[in-house]
Amino acid sequence: MHRAPAFLPLTVDAAARLNAGLLLRQALVTDRAADECWTALLAGCGTAARRGLAPQLRRLSEATSEHVGVRWWFAEGTGQRRRVASAQENLEDAIADGDGQEFALAFVGYDHAMASAVVACPQRARHSIPGQLGTAAGRGSLRQQPRAPQGRRT
């Protein structure tokens, strides 16, 4: 049986509407990880589910970066990227504190920030050519700024 996303409904909906398969799959995986983390928080457990959510959040940010295009993510989308980073920090703090209420509120903010970033990118900026800016390791990062392309203008 298919269940509706509980923690990332806006992000999942945005990815589905934009036909962003990779982003949609990662959002669903992250939503399942959030559900497991939520259960661990409510049970007062320090399980792997709590530790496993942060890497999933980073993978979702990377998938978002790939979808909107690295160039947009680090240029016009910088405000969106910073908003996602801040929401992600709040969420990671809630996980570390083991506070279920803080977790729920932080996830609402994270979902809104992530979905807003996905839909804010103009269609023409999406799907930039991989490798245009920075390295593969730098893609998806919320904090690092890519270097400007080198070479002469003709």
Précis, in short:
The chain is mainly α and 154 residues long. Helix content is 64%, strand content 0%.
Break the fold down into its secondary structure elements and pairings.
Layout: H1 9-17, H2 21-43, H3 48-68, H4 70-74, H5 78-97, H6 100-120
What is the CA-CA span between the terminal residues? 57 Å
Averaging pLDDT over every residue, what do you get? 80
Broad structural category: mainly alpha
Query: Strand share of the residues?
Result: under 5%
What's the number of extended β-strand segments?
0
Residues in helices, as a percent range? 55-70%
Low-pLDDT runs of 5+ residues are: 128-141, 143-154
Morphology call:
globular
Order of helices and strands: HHHHHH
Q: What is the alpha-carbon Rg in Å? A: 16 Å
Secondary structure tally, helices: 6
Please state the oligomeric state of the protein chains shown.
Answer: single chain
Largest sheet: number of strands, sense, barrel closure: none
Written description of the protein model:
By secondary structure, this protein is mostly helical. Helix content is 64%, strand content 0%. The protein contains six helices and no strands. It has helices at 9-17, 21-43, 48-68, 70-74, 78-97, 100-120. The chain is globular. Residues 128-141 and 143-154 have low confidence and may be disordered.
